[in-house]
Amino acid sequence: GCGVNLTHLDLSSSKQLTEVGVEAVAAACPKLTNINLLNGEGVGPSAIQALGTHCPDLVVVNLQRVRGATQGVQALCRGCPKLQTLVLSVCTLLDDDLAACTTLPALQVLDLNSVRGPGFKAYRQLGSSKTLQRLELNGLKLPPKQMLNVCTAIAQGCLELVYLGLNNSSASAACTNFVTEALPDCTLSTMHCIL
Fold it and tell me: Quick one: average pLDDT of 92-106?
């Protein structure tokens, strides 16, 4: 086994990675603080739920392109209150998955690049994430008024934000102007946006 004292584990792009395998790792390695499951196509929701159940000290989790992020994120957020970095790029999520992220008391980095599924109201809730310092929303496409509403909520609620990625999103000049005025120390990235 990996041992009860293991704190970091990189299983990114492992072709043999399975749901049962991640569940076994979670049960055997309760002191994990950092796990990378990037491209874990064989990882389902029960594996992500197992991390939330058995690994309460997780601080950094990379679930980019992990099929099991859908519904597993809620249990992960409930069980891992120390999470500071959560990467969910290119995942399909439910509104409730995204809402669970906003409940994390120590979350500083949230990567939602090209996420599919959540609606406008779920994205607007991101403004309640008071500890966020870096937020990646690259590829987010919403109607203009909804995108402005999301940017407004983030700018008014995420006062610690130092970076907001909106590349290739539907962000308008009104969005970027509001964020720039409300958060003058925040770097805003808007490549390939129609401003």
Answer: 95
Cβ atoms 172, 143 nearer than 8 A: no
Q: Which of 58-62, 70-74, 139-143 has the lowest mean pLDDT?
A: 70-74
What type of residue sits at position 109? V
Query: Tokens in use for 36?
Result: 């990378």
How far is residue 56's CA from residue 183's CA, in Å, rounded to a whole number? 33
Cβ–Cβ under 8 Å, residues 48 and 23: no
Q: Do residues 195 and 170 lie in contact, with contact meaning Cβ atoms separated by under 8 Å?
A: no
What residues contact residue 96 under an 8 Å CB cut-off, 6+ apart?
74, 122
Beta strands 109-111; 134-136: pairing state: parallel
Angle at CA of residue 104, ends 98 and 144, nearest 5° = 35
H or E segment at 19?
helix 19-28
**CA–CA separation, 73 vs 51, rounded Å?**
10
pTM: 0.96
Task: Give dist(CA 192, CA 169) in Å, integer.
Answer: 8
For residues 162-189, average pLDDT = 95
Q: What local confidence, expressed as pLDDT, does residue 81 receive?
A: 97
* Number of Cβ atoms within 10 Å of the Cβ of 143: 10
CA distances from 39 to 10, 34, 44, 88 (A): 11, 16, 12, 11
